[in-house]
Input
Amino acid sequence: MMRKPYHCLRSLGTALTLLLLPSLSSSPLLAQSSENVCRIGLHYKVLGEGTNSKSIPVLTAVQPFGPAAVGGFFPGDLITQIDGVPTTGLTKQQISELLVRPVGEHLLTIVRIGSGTTARILRPSCKAPYALTERELATAFSGYSPMDQAKQQRTLSFYFESSAPFDWSQAKTFAFAPSEGEHRDLYDIVYGQIAGLLEARGLTQQASGPDLILECSRSEAGGGARLTLQVTSPSKPNQTLWSGTSSLPKGTKEAHLYARQVIPVMLQSFPFLASSQANYTEETSRYLYTGILYDSRDLSRIVDVEEGSPAFTAGLRVGDKVLRINGKPLSPTTVRELSSRYRNFLDETYRYRSAEAVRPEQAPWKSSDYGSIRKALEKDKYASIFSYLFFFRPYINETEQTELIFEIERRGETYTLNLAPVLRDETVFIPQ
Output
């Protein structure tokens, strides 16, 4: 059964946040409602809001695998119309009200560098209020693998500038200036990353007669090394169309790693000029995806299976009752009791954590205790069946085999199905 875009949209970009499972027993997820919970998977800000200039919304982040990503939206897209309503001059609240209207799909007119003006469909992803996605369960059971479920506030310092007006809607192609000097290896890494980001937005890399020339440079300043990305036009190479600069840490290895992290954040505002202080939320989310939605009222019951997902391909269907996963029984089946078992696991395995944290489940595991952690997860008293979401980690599974074996009950008959999950990385940087 395929999830359909229902006509009850409660809030913009809503994705039920479960955290920690101990709080699930009082979560509104357990309340029955005629409304469905929907999300659109995008974040935006309004350029020019509160100033004398005409404001317009621009996408700042898109949730991986979410409706906006599926619809082909990217950070940097300017939204000029929503369902035929011009967005120029609207406030963020007014734009939100347009996006949460109870419709099955939205028609968004956008302006994108490399593509000009185009229209795209945004279909909200909706589910019953009692349905739990694996994304939500991975957040709920983050203590099994804290490195794969984290949320932190970060600040990066940038300097953006532009010295010449330019019609970015006319830019279709780009090329890179030749990499030279002792930092050539750093530039080559950065150029490959930039090319992928710009091509995803619709630009084409073209060595002959490009519309834009991009060049990275590394310089030394009083505060240390800096990395600058500069964009110029071949016809006027001395005029900077756009540039962004950020500090680099000491050390070659650290500089390369930092550049990989900072370039996507720097380009989120491209080709617009952003503030010098980039405050953003880094949401890390990695888990094994099968496409199953579980019933929060009875966790053994499958209430939906996303069409085309690994679970759907393997033959799992709505109404199936999950008895075991990889030999572990799905028992208890109530949120309250499973929460209690999970709390006990966190308390009794705390000695295997490598550092203190605000909450014990946020501290990483000691590599020397991976074997002890796996043994603990095998104990029935902890009911750790949903650790399968992190079956790709050595403290969960000592082999490289991530195939899952589901034992289910259907119409009184028992079946065993083998399922190959997909590792999803839904990590996203959300500017504030």
